[in-house]
Amino acid sequence: MTLPSCAFPPGHEVLVTTDLSLENVHFRRDWHPRNRSDIVCLARGLSDIAAMGGQPIGAFLSLALPAKLPPTWVDGFLRGLLALASQHGVTLAGGDTAQSPGLGSSANILADIVVVGSTPRGKALRRSGATSGDSIYVTGKLGASALALEALFSKPKTRLDPKKYPGHFYPQPRLAIGRYLRDHVSPVP
User: DSSP string covering the chain, please?
Assistant: First the structure.
């Protein structure tokens, strides 16, 4: 699939971000329902685009999956990812699949997301030129995901109610706020 030809308006520059999610490092199947690890995977990429003040356009997903992973897990993962993509007007434009190495329980899921977006030329918010005295903006509650992880690590056999830990299980990419800051804050070169 290709991105729509109108996806990159004239006078805009392309933004690209990639984020890797590895089972037992970034998520655990026994801790994260399948429709939460998918949202976290895409939300991380969308949040990178938001941090640059951009508008996401498309995503590419590559998955390495254990041979014995139930198809229902994959179906749920894709359903959740596509729902979040649709919510933000993002097209799943392609990707790849492979069998992950290892046998039985030693084989892990690997999800790599590439998100492509755009912003008016010269307006992207960049960390590379930040200097002392520049403003840093934070949205949401800091530490919400850390709180959930602390609870999970303290009682590894416990399954948390995702609704009680929305910052961890339901991350919200702050795209509108990123674009607002892009339009109202001087960009860092």
Answer: ----GGGS-TTEEEEEEEEEEEBTTTB-TTTS-HHHHHHHHHHHHHHHHHHTT-EEEEEEEEEEE-TT--HHHHHHHHHHHHHHHHHTT-EEEEEEEEEPSSSGGG---EEEEEEEEEEETT----STT--TT------S-TTHHHHHHHHHHHSTT----GGG-HHHHS----HHHHHHHHHHSPPP-
pLDDT at 186: 62
Length of the chain: 189
Say yes or no: domain 13-119+134-181 is CATH 2.60.40.1600: no
* Structure tokens that stand for 153 in this block: 């690590």
Give me the percent of the chain exceeding a pLDDT of 70: 88
> What global pTM score does this model have?
0.84
- According to DSSP, the residues that pair with 55 across neighbouring strands are 118
Give pLDDT, residue 27. 75
| pLDDT, mean of residues 92-97 | 94
Determine the Cα–Cα distance for residues 96 and 121; give it in Å rounded to an integer.
31
For residues 94 and 113, the answer to whether their CB atoms sit within 8 Å is no
Please say whether the beta carbons of 166 and 144 come within 8 A: yes
80 within 8 A of 35, measured Cβ to Cβ: yes
pLDDT of residue 62: 95
